[in-house]
């Protein structure tokens, strides 16, 4: 009865799809009692572009550029996930050199994606400056990618059987220069935002996601690791050549609040940048000489087969489920998007938060609506 | 004021032969024009300055092309744009309130300029209760904010208005308490009197008059005044990442420009009050009189405004309950203790 009367007293706010901090076109129906949120119901589908259906009506090669547009902040990771899936489906061997290049660009793109996440999270909490710092750094990554494949956002660089173009020593030098540059910057970010008292007040112990709840909702990626679950597909279900590098998945420690709060989710991403830098350093040192593309027929027709291939994108477990029936396009193409599962948990976290906290929690989950709606 | 107008009407003066009534009217119009000019110029300068300061803090350049030298004409271009834009009034707003709100806010910012002393004789009106007048007038703006929030017929605006009401009412108290030590040190409520009592070098400033207590009072005043003018990190009423744009979400064109101008002139006014109360107003820090007073006063104000800008582009925003916590449980007790401490210090030492 008291619940019903609270509902009656409350207020329904329509947050989005046109709202500065819903990171795209998410709409949330927010039931509030004053400033306190009693319920938040995410409403998605504003960016639905029939990606899975397109995957079923295009050839295997032609779908690669579409995967760029799923999670447009980490296009390389999306390309990588899709290409690994098709290669497993058709049994294609990828040359060593291509594998190294793939890992380098995927990790660079992970850094770029985490930088955007860092910057926009500051923006969500009212700190404007980190955003521009993060974009300054991301710009350097985009320049490298532009050199490598001509595109700055949607690359379609990783191709089935290899990569689109070979990497030059000059580009490797640029990457080396970038990883040397980014590491001191991370300390600067810590001073600027991570350990700012107001920032800690706003994020510590806000929206604590318990590991049980995270697993129940299929939450993956940095959000899951921030809850203290040591699970990273790059180590636990190795694809590509991730098992050759020396690095450690980052797990939330609850340094300033409790494990699994918004601060932890934020911090896991910043610390993951350091791990990605480690991987890139090792990969650059080891890139072998050789071909960068395998011989793959342009009209690829895998025999009847099905595969579910999961990779660790910047947001979590990116799965491609492909069923081949001997034709030039897959019979079924299903994308398991990390942002979708991660976003679904917001309904559990929201009750009892304040409106400002809801923004903080949503920002710390770091969804990309292109990834959610597909 | 009366004597001043009377001297003006004496033979050989500017208004010789003019009747006293007409002369006072002319003086009033001239003062209003001067204040409006200061507000407009200040708004234009601060907008440009804020853009440049924020740009350089963020590894950008800011406006560079308009006017050829560092985009110095940018504010004028923006002003013309805002003047020419249509004022959109949404269909279901409470129209009289909607149109009145910017006027109320701007009016309170405008009136706050009256007792600010710019120089030895350069003051619109030296009220003998100047400080009280300013605290009363600056808190009028909350009425405009609540009006705007309510009349907009927009839930986000209403949230902004409610937050602003709570915030400004709460922060009045620490602001008031932080003013008291300076008033005790100067022994007057007149703004001109306060400045005059701090003559002869920075060691005579009220900032150092009450030992540590006036220093703390200055800091408390500065923080609380930031909250009173809705500047970051206390810009909750217009928190763009939460409330879209808060109470002025629905405003456009010149109505929006009024909010904007009011915000910048309030920043200016609180800095002016802080420098009058604690930094000696137009007095020279070294007790010399080489540099004209108004310039020194302006320099002090702009220094404080710069700190406000610096805060804005560095800190994240507080949450609404943390804001209240800070006002009632931190700043207000400190303010009270400070008043007693300063009083004891002034009596005993």
Provide tags for this entry.
heterodimer, A: 374 residues, alpha+beta, Cytochrome-c3 Hydrogenase, chain B, 3-stranded antiparallel beta sheet, 16 helices, B: 349 residues, mainly alpha, 13 helices, 65% helix, 0% strand, globular
Q: Which helices and strands occur, and which strands form pairs?
A:
The complex is a heterodimer of chains A (374) and B (349).
Chain A: H1 2-9, E1 11-15, E2 27-33, E3 36-43, H2 51-57, H3 60-68, H4 75-90, H5 96-124, H6 129-149, E4 158-159, E5 162-163, H7 169-194, H8 197-203, H9 211-216, H10 222-226, H11 233-236, H12 262-286, E6 305-313, E7 316-324, E8 332-336, H13 338-344, H14 346-349, H15 355-365, H16 369-373
Antiparallel strand pairs in A: 1-2, 2-3, 4-5, 6-7, 7-8
Chain B: H1 2-9, H2 20-57, H3 74-84, H4 95-111, H5 130-138, H6 141-151, H7 155-186, H8 191-196, H9 212-228, H10 240-243, H11 253-278, H12 293-312, H13 320-348
Structure description:
The complex is a heterodimer of chains A (374) and B (349). With 374 residues, chain A is α+β, with helices and mostly antiparallel strands. Chain A has a single domain (8-364), classed as Cytochrome-c3 Hydrogenase, chain B. Chain A has helices at residues 2-9, 51-57, 60-68, 75-90, 96-124, 129-149, 169-194, 197-203, 211-216, 222-226, 233-236, 262-286, 338-344, 346-349, 355-365, 369-373, and strands spanning 11-15, 27-33, 36-43, 158-159, 162-163, 305-313, 316-324, 332-336. In chain A, strands 1-2-3 form a three-stranded antiparallel beta sheet. A three-stranded antiparallel beta sheet of chain A has the order 6-7-8. In chain A, strands 4-5 form a two-stranded antiparallel sheet. In chain A, β7 (316-324) and β8 (332-336) form a beta hairpin. With 349 residues, chain B is mainly alpha-helical. In chain B, 65% of the residues lie in helices and 0% in strands. Chain B has helices at residues 2-9, 20-57, 74-84, 95-111, 130-138, 141-151, 155-186, 191-196, 212-228, 240-243, 253-278, 293-312, 320-348. In chain B, α7 runs antiparallel to α9 (212-228) and α11 (253-278) packs across α12. Chain A binds chain B through residues 11, 13-14, 19-21, 35, 122-129, 132-133, 136, 192-193, 196, 198-199, 201-202, 354-357, 359, and chain B through 54, 57-60, 155-156, 159, 232-233, 235, 239-244, 312-322.
